[in-house]
């Protein structure tokens, strides 16, 4: 079964082909292609939804042609078309959904709407060291921070989540306050490497809340307060403040992940979503897990942020596991929230 996956939920157009055998064998990535709109949105300091939609329209078919050519496949070889149904920007999602359904109708192939976060969650299965069920998942993206118990494909129990800003949002908003531009996460993380995290004491919200929820909205206020206090000295102390911000976010993510593992008696952790690319998070999590005999699985670095491979994969795994059937009704729907 060859599944074409299309991702267009935000500022990345991703298209990929995976091949899945019958049974439980992990699908194989045949080809994937990505166009990032970062350069286009940079001037505005964030994603402009209308520009994002228009750019997806321009990119999605050339990227589809590219993956077919890279995989040595023809359009007729596609068995199923999977697309991101949500969450994401409505207009952007409609582009992927529209193209997926048009291809499905033209080729007489079924289509399947995929949850973007399930794509992230399953993306470590495309790494050279794929996890095995069950595991605890830490999902850290620009819009979500969630801890999940995962017993199989589609068997997800939400254990805790952010009650306000997501971890990626905390990175992005703090970076903006420090004048680091968009996207803030990678920029703040790069600057943090030159700073001393102990130079500022920043809050670790909900660390001792006794549950697995997160709260990051207060952190950006604390960063703003420190930045104001520093005044003209901010420029010279920016790297320290960036390092302290990153340390506060990473500290909470690591401790709550360990707590989730212990509460569920699990020894396997999967980290997914854009913030999973953060070097410091990877180092701290790996160290904390090593101490406790827990194995950690990450997606390949280039598959941490949005991409089509994870959507093709999630679609293929849902079909393989029999929990979902692709549909030949091309009345596509999107779920922005
Ligand atoms: O998963 P993703 O690509 O898109 C969403 O589904 O939201 O995640 C994007 C988020 C952004 O907030 C971005 O700043 C953050 O992931 N991010 C990082 C890093 N790379 C991406 N945050 C911290 N350090 C990084 N290296
Ligand atoms: Zn994402």
Task: Record the SSE blueprint.
Layout: E1 2-7, E2 12-19, E3 28-36, H1 38-42, H2 49-71, E4 80-86, H3 90-107, E5 111-115, H4 116-122, E6 135-140, E7 145-152, E8 155-161, H5 167-177, H6 184-192, H7 217-230, H8 234-263, E9 268-272, H9 279-291, E10 295-297, H10 308-320
Parallel strand pairs: 1-4, 4-5, 6-9, 9-10
Antiparallel strand pairs: 1-2, 2-3, 6-7, 7-8
Can you describe what's shown?
51% of the residues are buried. The protein has two domains: 2-122 and 304-320, ATPase, nucleotide binding domain (Nucleotidyltransferase, domain 5), CATH 3.30.420; 132-298, Nucleotidyltransferase, domain 5 (2-Layer Sandwich). α3 links the parallel β4 and β5. The strands form two sheets. It has a five-stranded mixed β-sheet with strand order 3-2-1-4-5, with helices on both faces. It starts with a strand and ends in a 17-residue tail after the last helix. The chain has helices at residues 38-42, 49-71, 90-107, 116-122, 167-177, 184-192, 217-230, 234-263, 279-291, 308-320, and strands at 2-7, 12-19, 28-36, 80-86, 111-115, 135-140, 145-152, 155-161, 268-272, 295-297. The chain contains ten helices and ten strands. With 337 residues, it is of the alpha/beta class. Bound molecules: 5'-O-[(R)-(carboxyoxy)(hydroxy)phosphoryl]adenosine (KG4) and zinc ion. Its cofactor is Fe(2+).
